């Protein structure tokens, strides 16, 4: 069985900059999973620092309204990996999931760490590169010309542990 992980699609991240392109792709993928009666698991990140927009009691930590109502499960985390000290593995085991699809935000942290952790736990992992986004930029890392999504996708693809697809390739491979 397959499951979709929708990582950190939260107000404090989505509203940080224009994320409409990523959100549209994520919404289409969610609708595809719903049409196939496959589970959609939202992952929600919490920060311990009160001033952070993802602090547990802030509106920024809430799952964005564009995807909120599609959650079959919500997993709460405090680290980049959706597996570390959460109930994600038990949910996937209970459902009989063998293949996880990664979409969401903070490509170079939460999405990548979850993909690697999923592989380490024996799941087939599909990372939909352009259905992820980040609040960071080339300036954050002081690396002119850095395309964060492409870099992470390339690293995961070259590792030969993760299937990395663009949204159009996902549609062709899994919706056809």
Automatic annotation (TrEMBL):
Coiled coil: none annotated. InterPro entries: Isochorismatase-like_dom, Isochorismatase-like_hydrls, Isochorismatase-like_sf. Keywords: Hydrolase. One of its GO terms (molecular function) is hydrolase activity. Residues 3-158 form the Isochorismatase-like domain. Belongs to the isochorismatase family. This is Isochorismatase family protein. It comes from Bacillus timonensis.
